[in-house]
Amino acid sequence: xxxxxxxxxxxxxxxxxxxxxSQPAIWHLLGYxxxxxxxxxxxxxxxxxxxxxxAAQALRKEHRWGLDIPVTAMALATSAAVxxxxxxxxxxxxxxxxxxxxxxxxxxxxxxxxARKAPSVLGVGDGEPKA
Length: 131
Hints:
Keywords: Membrane, Transmembrane, Transmembrane helix
Helix content: over 70%
Radius of gyration: 25 Å
Number of strands: 2
Transmembrane segments: 31-53
Distance between the termini: 90 Å
Shape: elongated
Strand order of the largest sheet: 1-2
Structural class: mainly alpha
Number of helices: 4
Largest sheet: 2 strands, antiparallel
């Protein structure tokens, strides 16, 4: 009976130690490991920034499929790449994602300006860029 008591006590101590020390979920993308919470936070931050910045703009509907979707996809992919390479904490990942989503808005504005000038540059239309 005395030999069983230390084994039982060791089992209880071991069980209690594993419950308190949890590890973050590690996912893999193309062989690169990253923390799931950080990736989800970054992608949410990026998508939220892209949506809320562009939601109030009526002009966005005109270029939704041609410019907005590719720029959003590029911003999300860049956010994922930054998270895989930097491996930040979830709060830092959220900030990275939001920052890259806002940067995507600047890229959209540049692409939109180029799309407006394209007819006059290519010689199609009346030669004046639309305001």
